[in-house]
């Protein structure tokens, strides 16, 4: 497996988690019961796939989740902006810079 393959897995897992959360949120805001249930089922399925995918790279759990947080943060901001029209604020950018910096320390630290 290439060194970058686990990073692709983490990116896809972040898309599934943030997307699944967004689908469930949309379900909570939906009125027709059938639509609500379908959105809950779709979101739940996405979150199940996320859980399987995020744990598939053969890294230590702490490193895996430490790097995953970076991917999740970045994808969550894009999903928030596109799906809910909520662009990142300055505090989110500042906090995000710290999250990404921490991910770089984890990735480059080799631990």
Distance between the termini: 19 Å
Series of secondary-structure elements, N-terminal to C-terminal: HHHH
What oligomeric state is this?
single chain
**Segments where pLDDT lies below 50 for 5+ residues?**
none
Give the tally of structural domains. Answer: 1
Fraction in helix = over 70%
Structural class call reads mainly alpha
Topology:
Elements: H1 5-28, H2 33-54, H3 61-84, H4 90-109
Question: Main traits of this protein?
Answer:
mainly alpha, 111 residues, 0% strand
In short:
This protein is an all-alpha fold and 111 residues long. The chain has one domain.
Tell me what you see in this structure.
By secondary structure, the chain is mainly alpha-helical. The chain has one domain. Helix content is 81%, strand content 0%. It has four helices and no strands. It has helices spanning 5-28, 33-54, 61-84, 90-109. Helix 1 (5-28) packs antiparallel against helix 2 (33-54), helix 1 (5-28) packs across helix 3 (61-84) and helix 3 (61-84) packs antiparallel against helix 4 (90-109). The protein starts with a helix and ends with a helix.
């Amino acid at each position: 497996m290439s060194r970058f393959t686990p990073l692709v897995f983490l990116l896809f897992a972040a898309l599934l988690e943030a997307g699944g959360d967004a689908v469930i949120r949309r379900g909570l805001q939906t009125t027709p019961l059938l639509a609500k249930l379908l959105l809950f089922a779709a979101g739940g399925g996405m979150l199940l796939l996320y859980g399987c995918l995020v744990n598939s790279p053969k890294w230590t759990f702490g490193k895996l989740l430490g790097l995953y947080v970076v991917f999740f943060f970045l994808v969550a901001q894009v999903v928030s902006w596109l799906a809910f029209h909520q662009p990142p604020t300055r505090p989110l950018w500042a906090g995000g810079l710290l999250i990404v910096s921490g991910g770089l320390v984890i990735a480059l630290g080799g631990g």
